[in-house]
Amino acid sequence: MVRTETVSQGFTEIGPGQHINAAFPDNHLFGIQDTIAGGVSGMGETMCIQNHNFRSYFGPFPNVQRDRLLSYIESVKRSPNGNAHDLYKTNGDPFILWANVPEAPIQGGTDSRPPIPGESQWLDSPVKFIFSWYAFAKMQDDRELLELAWPAIKQEISWLLGTIEPGKHLPSEPPMMSNPFSIVPQGPGPGVYNSGFYLLGLQLAIASGEMLGVESDYVASLKKTFAEASNEFENIFWDDSKQCYHFAAGGPYQDAMSYTTFYPQFLAEMMELPDLLNPDRVKLEMTTHYYTYRRYNAKYQMMGLPLLMREGGLVRENGTVPLEVDWVTVGDNFSAAAGYYTAGKRYQAPELSEFGLEIGDALARQIWLEPGNGLAFAAPWGYFNNDSRKCVYPGYSQALAIWDLLNAIKPLETL
Question: Contact at 8 Å (CB) between 201 and 156?
Fold first, then answer.
């Protein structure tokens, strides 16, 4: 929803009643509620969440989605530091308002303060904005939108560069709220999920510049930046003895591994971009460790994949496992199902494709085929890996990531 008091050709200052995207007549601007659970996450939309749903949005509803993406482009361009996130405020007002405010309670979450290595949060969001613009332009053959997005793409890349410590080449994680796995410690130093998205952002910017035929020197500098970041990624995260990428460079889960490592790589493949990670290592980890992620409930139904997996378990010295660390997160699991399915085809490893189908079937069963779970109309963000009735954020929109699996099995037509 938007307020009806708008100005016809944009606006000179941000304030109540102003309508971002007003420079485009007859545009459609609305929010996609993340969850029915309430709270900050349920009052509007956040791109770090909505990224899982892009295929279900951009294909069937391109006209209204284009206007939404244009509003984000304008939001980034207007922000003082080039990293605007969300278009809503947590003030109970049902209308979309400019949320790029310095008093926001979360650094980087709903504002655009200057980037600070080791402090700036939601380090995946800038790249997910860039991905949404590039993916829509590619799926809809919309060069004009990519042209409009180009300055915002450069601004988001610049902001991310500011999160990297001097002499390093990957973003440095904050203590908490690094990305959607908000309360799972991923630092100090780089984490594999955000670092993978940083590599994706560089490739998206390179591809955008080459597609538009603009700023060849800038694009060349990004290629050098990518090469340095890619080399650091492999050196920091790859463990040749265990044949896997580590979850983080430091912290309590430094030696754990996560299937979400491959999500940025999967998105790159969907957009026909160069590999982000070493393909031989990706194949080796997937084929060596995929079966260790299986988790089951008391009925011996497969539940999906826990966020982290570590030899010897994830239990702390006090005998507990922290929240989120071993949960099955629905959107990530559906995206992983598609990723494993396509990896099986690419690497001629049918066991990976079968595993992808097994993941998709497990989640679909828990959400839609077990009435006693009560999830059919309220698919959650995540649930316990042995009991899907213990869940958080009901009605979470990330379950739409099942479209990625459907497309992997049989490509969907774009309207």
Answer: yes
Yes or no: say if 261 and 282 are a contact pair by the CB < 8 Å rule: no
Q: Within 13 A of 144's CA, how many CA atoms are on the CB side?
A: 3
E strand map for 47-138: none
The CA angle 256-227-348, to the nearest 5 degrees, is 60
Residue among 269, 187, 305, 353 at smallest CA distance from 277:
269
Task: State both tokens at 118.
Answer: 């080791």
End-to-end CA distance of the chain: 24
3-state secondary structure 273-331: CCCCCCHHHHHHHHHHHHHHHCEECCCCCEEECCCCECCCCCCCCCCCCCCCCCCEEHH
Here the tokens at position 76 are 């980034």
Q: What distance in Å separates the CA atoms of residue 270 and residue 404, rounded to the nearest whole number?
A: 10
Q: Tell me: the pLDDT tens digits for 190-210?
A: 999 999 999 999 999 999 999
Helices (H), 17-86: 47-50, 54-58, 62-78
Q: What are phi and psi of 390, to 5 degrees?
A: -95, 95
Q: Decide: residue 271, CB within 10 A, 0-12 exposed, 13-18 middle, 19+ buried.
A: middle
Distance CA 165, CA 236 (A): 15
Spell out the residues 6+ positions from residue 52 whose beta carbon is closer than 8 angstroms to its own: 331, 332, 334, 335, 397, 398, 400, 401, 404
Q: Is the Cβ–Cβ distance between 341 and 408 less than 8 Å?
A: yes
Question: Residue 352: left (phi > 0), alpha (psi -120 to 50), or beta?
Answer: alpha
Phi/psi at 351 (5° precision): -65, -30
Using alpha carbons, select from 221, 108, 107, 109 the residue that is nearest to residue 154.
Answer: 221
pLDDT (tens digit, 9 = 90+) per residue, 94-147?
Answer: 445 444 444 444 444 445 678 999 998 889 999 999 999 999 999 999 999 999
Q: Between vectors from CA 158 to CA 126 and to CA 207, what angle results, nearest 5°?
A: 70
Label residue 393 by pLDDT band (50, 70, 90).
confident
Q: What is the DSSP letter of 174?
A: P
* Spatial separation of the C-alpha atoms in residues 357 and 304, rounded to whole Å: 11
